[in-house]
Amino acid sequence: MHNVVIVGAGPAGLSAALAAAAAGAPVLLIDSNPRLGGQYWRMPSDNVGQQGEQHFDLDTGLILINAVKARKEIEILSSAQIWSATHKDGVNTLRVIQNGAEKIINTKNLILCTGAYDRTLPFPGWDTPGVMTPGGVQSLLKGHGVLAGKKVVVAGSGPFLLPVAAGVVKAGGEVVELLEANNSARWLLSPFVMLENVGKLKEAFYYVKTISQAKVRARFATAVIAAHKNSEGNLESVDVATIRGNFKVKKVRNVKCDVAAVGWGFTADTSLAGALGCKQIVAKDGGVVVSADSDQQSSIPGVFVAGEITGIGGAELSMAEGVIAGISAAGFVGCKVEVLKAHRKRRAKRQRFADALIKSYPVKAGWISWLNDQTVICRCEEVSVGNLKYAVNELGATDSRTAKLLTRCGMGLCQGRVCGRSVVDLVASELKVSPTDTDRYSAANRPIITPIPLGVLAAGE
Question: Which residues contact 197 (CB under 8 A, 6 or more apart)?
Answer without folding.
Answer: 349, 350, 352, 353
